[in-house]
Amino acid sequence: MHKDIETVLISQKKLENIVNRLAKQIEKDYNDKEFIMVGLLKGSVAFMADLMKKIDLDFCIDFMAASSYGSGTESSGKVKITKDTTFDVRDKHILLVEDIVDSGNTLNFICNYLMTRGAASVRVATLCDKPARRKVPFDPEYVGEQIPDEFIVGYGMDYDEKYRNLPYIGILKRSVYE
Ligand code: IMP
Ligand code: MG
Question: From ligand 1's centre to the CA of 142, what distance in Å?
Fold first, then answer.
């Protein structure tokens, strides 16, 4: 285990089970719908790479990036889109892939944005969900795991751009950021 990790919250094996379960659900729901899978950079990369390979349907992928977090552990509340999709989303079903929903600010903003751009529907698959920290109401359709109010890293998620490459999700030691 990495020296900055307090405990492993979601092991590699458990991540695999979560991904398989969500992929099956998505496959069933989008069986008759053409959709674009849109990953939110950078946190979703590990999850999306594993998830897309388990969905036996034809679909395109795209990416967006938004900033609201600085280098701290608290959301600033202000969301800015720093990279938009390359595809036109008009009349398309969009499945957003996210690492974690925390305050809900980011996804609330992005879902509204995609709807104003004319998307036919927008749904969200998030690996982790911290419902206790919501500042705006937000209910993702596909949730991997609900987690306690702790700062977590790994499997795409970072603190100050580090730890994204850990193959598991762990709780970061408070001494790293306090
Ligand atoms: P929200 O806008 O507050 O919901 O924040 C969402 C973004 O904050 C996520 O996409 C993550 O990039 C980041 N974030 C929130 N909680 C954590 C965490 O515990 N570890 C790492 N990143 C987090
Ligand atoms: Mg993120």
Answer: 17
